[in-house]
Amino acid sequence: MDHINTPKVDHVQLLGKNGSRTSVSGCLYLTATHTIFMDAIGNKETWILHHHLSSVEKLALSTRGSPLKLQCKTFRSLTFVIPKERDCQDVYESLLHFSQPASAEDLYAFSYSPQSLNLSRQEGWGIFDVVEEFGRQGVPNENWKASDANEGYRICETYPPWLYVPDSVSNPIISGSAKFRSKGRLPALSYYYAPNQAAICRCSQPLAGVGRRSEEDEALLAAFLRAGPNRPYMYVVDTRPKINAMANRAAGKGYENTDFYQGIVFQFLGIQNIHVMRESQQKLLEAYSDAGTASYSFQMAIENSSYLKHIKSILDTSLFIAKAVHDEKANVLVHCSDGWDRTAQTCSLAGIMLDPYYRTFHGFMILIEKEWLGFGHKFMDRCGLVKGDGHEVSPVFTQFLDCVWQMMQLHPTAFEINERMLVHIHDHVYSCQFGTFLGNNCRSREKLSLSSRTYSLWGYLVRQKEEYLNPLFCAPPPGTWPMLEPSSVVHSYQCWHGLYNYHDSAVHPRETVLQHMAQITDIAAIMDDQAKSLGQKIEALRSKLNVTSEAPADAEPGSEGKPASESSPLEMPELLKELPDPKADWVEPRLALQCSCATFLESGTYRYHCRHCGVAFCPRCLDRRAQLPYQPAGSEGRVCRQCSKELR
Q: Which secondary-structure segment (H or E) carries 294?
């Protein structure tokens, strides 16, 4: 609170988007974690998490006051007009400080504590077991083994301590190869395709320069070739444009020389670097920022951003890798420059195309743990979670989620997860509410002691699993491995309005068939639970009333059909108490405009139904759960604040 000079400002105006003259007057409150705007008339609240802020900008003075524009990493934009310039300056300085933490220790995760979910710190941190995951794939075996070469991070600080390599290689070869690779990121097994024993491996670019070579690196790649199915070749996929790789070669890095590496087929695939991707996304956001743009101009702006072309290039590269493994039964070695951006994108997407497990709720989390967190994608730098070099920021992980969403549109029954899960993972990468995505690699996360000091996002998602399931999901028959293929036509790719327009009332995402179907399925499941509960109560009442169609042998004549105990009959009030009327007055999601906590439900905000009263509420109130009257002992359902107090 030391950095908040003005915790409350009255008579602030929240402007409509795109220069609209409409505005809402209210009070602006600043806390250490959130900025809250409360509407003076409707008593509606708008919450902005400080870690979500990507920029805070003071605009030119107007007759209304001092405008302050907030841009969020979740593609939300708000402009406040503060009457006094001094108050505006105080708010501006406070938000600059809170939106740019100096170190990881200042992030929200280290102070966050769930209020009513009863989530323990241990939940979710043990979800990924490397031995269990590679064992599921069929490793180790006669060709592949687990290596302790990087134990204690002694050969590569940005790699995990666990590595899987060909069975024939020794630690000196592994260490020698690491010295010849950028950042020490040597070739290691990423995914083993059990049906035909082909594999995907990943690494960084070699320090080849012009004419340099490494016998250990050549021996390691030769071992990778022998470890695959009986093929005379393996692919080396450089995800960069060839001109970029050649420029790196002039700087002493570059790509493998086929004269030194036997049996490799080299392939450049042309995914652009982080700087091009950052600029492309910025152009995309600029196209979205003007909701009043004519349809043709908007489409041209989207086209000129080249963002969808970049999404397609990532998926095309991933498909090439997957087909090489699936169709040609060939091993594939994938790298870019340092092996933590484009390599993570393509290896994880190829895994999704090949392995149905990675399309499930649990498998998708395991994939992110293995390919992104385990192999050291720099979340802190790429997502700008702490104050640092802005040129390191790039939407690498956002593009991965976008690619998954594109495949979900083409194959709506292939994924167990839904769009909501992708959006929530994206939001929480930037919220820093959980410790899952903090740090740039395994070693930095260990130094921060995240598993003992913060909560895991995976534990939270598992608690809310029913919210993230796809009602159309059809699991493949056991033992089958149906491969998914993205479209090869650029026009089949579409802008992800559910992410980029999540907070936009002008170009809001319409309610999809899947969302509507999920809501109907949810209601049907609750009504089914209520019906089962009522059925059990009816059976209990029948037993209690003990009505028989025949009198006992020693009963007096005329006593058939009477209760066994005439002395204590159940009265009607007691019967009604035994059979309470279940609440099922479900509010239509699109008609719910405000949560019970006073938060305004924007057009793109997901509505969650209270399973007790049927009221729709906002995601911020989602962590409230309680034992419901119709549920068996030990079970809990999501409820709103009011019902949480009633059922406590």
A: none
Tell me the pLDDT tens digit for each residue of 113-135: 887 667 889 999 999 999 999 99
Overall residue count recorded for the chain in this entry: 648
CA–CA dist 342, 335 (Å, integer): 8
Considering only CA atoms, which of 216, 206, 213 is closest in space to residue 169? 216
Tokens 């003007």 correspond to: 290
Handedness of CA 613, 421, 476, 140 (dihedral sign): negative
Query: What is the residue type of 547?
Result: V
* 621 a catalytic residue: no
The pLDDT confidence band at residue 576, using thresholds 50, 70 and 90, is low
Asked if residues 569 and 470 have their Cβ atoms less than 8 Å apart, the reply is no
> Residue 541: which H helix or E strand, with range?
helix 513-545
User: How is residue 577 written in tokens?
Assistant: 């108490």
Buried b (16+ CB within 10 A) or exposed e, 187-201: bbbbbbbeeebbbbb
Beta-carbon count within 10 A of 542 CB: 10
Q: What is the pLDDT of residue 551?
A: 47
Ranges of beta strands (E only) in 143-276 are 144-147, 163-166, 188-193, 198-203, 234-238, 264-268
Q: Return the exposure string of 3-35: e unless at least 16 CB atoms fall within 10 Å of the residue's CB, then b.
A: ebebeebeebbbbebeeeeeebebebbbeebbb
- Mean pLDDT, range 481-506, rounded to an integer: 85
CA neighbor of 450 nearest in space, from 462, 461, 458, 439: 439
| Angstrom distance (rounded) from CA 292 to CA 489 | 29
Radius of gyration of the chain (CA): 29
Instruction: Indicate if the pLDDT at residue 35 is higher than 70.
Output: yes
Write down the catalytic residue from 336, 383, 403, 442.
Answer: 336
Torsional sign, CA 214, 217, 223, 224: negative
Q: What is the mean pLDDT of the chain?
A: 87
Neighbours of 209 (CB within 10 A): 15
SS3 264: strand
Backbone angles phi, psi at 616, to 5 degrees: -85, 140
Q: Is the pLDDT of residue 210 over 90?
A: no
Spatial separation of the C-alpha atoms in residues 247 and 264, rounded to whole Å: 22
> pTM above the 0.70 mark?
yes
pLDDT exceeds 90 at position 356: yes
